[in-house]
Amino acid sequence: MKKSKTCLFRGDISAKFLCENNIKLGFSIDGYKSIHDKNRIYRSNGKGSFEDVVKGMKIYQKYSHINILSVVNTESDVNLFYQTIKDLGCYSASILLRDCHYSNKNKED
């Protein structure tokens, strides 16, 4: 699975090509809009990327299942988080806790 700037992913032609060639994308989305936009912001304008990620997901979803990677804020509403992911039609989710991620997997506390 390829992780990339899928908030910039826009075209049906690209989505179809990727799926026809068995290239899977992973979309980074951290739950509902207010939580996601708090952590995933554009450096250029300071705005959150939730709406752009969802647009890219909807395009890709026409051709393949949606897989997400989510860094969960432990202070977020878990029920709203679950409902958002479910409403987006996600096929699978890899969920990481904010302080327990791949880059510090082998570090001592």
Q: If you had to describe this structure to a student in words, what would you say it looks like?
A:
- The protein has 109 residues and is of the alpha/beta class.
- It has one domain.
- 35% of the residues lie in helices and 19% in strands.
- It has helices at residues 12-20, 33-39, 50-61, 78-87; strands at 2-3, 25-28, 66-72, 90-97.
- It has a four-stranded parallel beta sheet with strand order 1-2-3-4.
- The radius of gyration is 14 Å and the shape is globular.
List keywords for this structure.
4-stranded parallel β-sheet, globular, 109 residues, 4 helices, 4 strands, alpha/beta
Please provide the ordered H/E string of secondary-structure elements: EHEHHEHE
The helix content, as a percent range, equals 25-40%
Q: Main sheet: which strands, in order across?
A: 1-2-3-4
- Binned strand content: 15-25%
- By helix and strand content, what is the structural category? alpha/beta
The biggest beta sheet is recorded as:
4 strands, parallel
Total beta-strand segments: 4
Radius of gyration: 14 Å
Quickly count the helices: 4
Distance separating the two termini: 30 Å
The coarse silhouette is globular
- Mean pLDDT, as a whole number? 81
Q: Please mark out the parts with pLDDT under 50 across 5 or more consecutive residues, or reply none.
A: none
How many domains? The number is 1
